[in-house]
Design a protein that fits this description.
By secondary structure, this protein is mainly β. The chain has one domain. It is built from one helix and six strands. The chain has a three-stranded antiparallel β-sheet with strand order 2-1-6, with no helix packed on it. It has a three-stranded antiparallel β-sheet with strand order 3-4-5, with no helix packed on it. The longest helix has 8 residues.
Amino acid sequence: MAITVNKHPDLDDDSYSDGTNWVIDDDGRLHVVSATGNLASYNANQWASAKRVEVPVPIAPNKIQVMLSV
């Protein structure tokens, strides 16, 4: 099981294979959590939806290049 976060129709989804749940705080921020703690947080205007998926959505090749160049 994994958690996938849809950020915006023009952006790739983020997937967290260790994600077990998500929490929305009082300020509308989304927190993806696992058995060991917080995996990611999104400000209220940076996410559209979250869902559980059987298989994580693959990361687009251009996103991998961006991540590696940091």
